[in-house]
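Aim 2, interim progress. The first record below pairs a target sequence with its C-alpha cells.
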Amino acid sequence: MYLFRLCPVAGLVLGVVAASSAASSAAAEVLFDCPIGAQQLSVALTGDTATYTFGPQGAPEMTISAAPRGLNYLPWDGMGTSMPEAVQFAKAGTTYEVWYAVQKQMDENAPLAPTQGGVRVMQGDAMLADLVCTAPPSVYALERIYDAKLAAGQCYDWQSQSWGTACAG
C-alpha cells in the first residue's frame, strides 16, 4: 500500500531531477582557455550564448556575451600547414578577436607542435593589442561557434568569406 502511495512522489522527484539535469546540461562548455601572463583568456558557450572573458582567474575584468549568430567566426580555409580559427566579439567599437592555430602534422613520427593562441584587440583597422598565450591553450574548440551559427540558420560563404542566411550549396 505504501509503495503505491510513494509512486506519485517518486515520479515527482524523478521529474524534478530530470528538469534539474536538463538545466545543468546548459552548463558552460569551454571552447578556448589559456593564460596570458597573470590573466586568463576564455571563450565559453552556454546554450545559445557565447561569452568572452579576460582577466584574473575567477575575477575577469572584461566579459562580453553574445548569441553566436551575432559573432564573426573565421574558420580555417583549408590552405597551408597552419590551421587557424578565430571568433570576434565586439563591444563599444572595439573588436576582441580570439584565435588559435594548430600546425598540421606532416610527418606522423614528428612531435606535435604546440598550439598557439591569443587575442587581438582592434578598433577598425588599428591594432590596439596583440596578446599571445604564455602557455598553449588547454582547450581550443572554437569550431563549436561554427556549429552554433549553422544551428541558428546561418551559413558560411567560402567565396566571399562571410556569413549569411542564403548561401549556395
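The second target in this work package is listed in the same format:
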Amino acid sequence: MLRRLARALRVKRGWTQEALAERAGLDYKYYQLFEAGRTAAPSLKLVEKLAEVFGVSPWVLLCDEVELVEARAGVTVAELSAKHGPGRPRKDGRTLNSPKTDAGGTAPKTGGKRPARRRRRR
C-alpha cells in the first residue's frame, strides 16, 4: 500500500519521480525502483522522508485502512488503484510494455520454453 500511496500522492501533486526524489533527498533510481516494487522493505527513514515531503504523518503512509488514508492524505480509492500508463515511447515507436510485432502487426509466437543452455567443457 505504501508504494501505491506514494505514487498516487506524487501524481496528484504533478511531480515526476525525479522531482520527488530530489525533494526527499533520495537517489532518483532508488525511488524509481521503490515505486516499481523492486526494492526491499522500506526503512523507517525513507517513510519519514516521504511523509515530510507529502505533508502527512508517517503512520498515514503505513496505514492499511483505506478510509483513514482517504481522510488524512486526500487520495481516493480510484487514485490508489489506478495503474500507470503504458510507459515512455522507445526509439522504435513501441512503449516499454508493448509486445514486439512482426511486419503484419501481430506478436510473434514463442514456443513457451527457452532453449536449454549448453555447458562449457573444461
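Helices lie at 2-13, 17-24, 28-36, 44-54, 58-62, 66-73, 77-81. This observation will shape the mutagenesis plan for the next reporting period.
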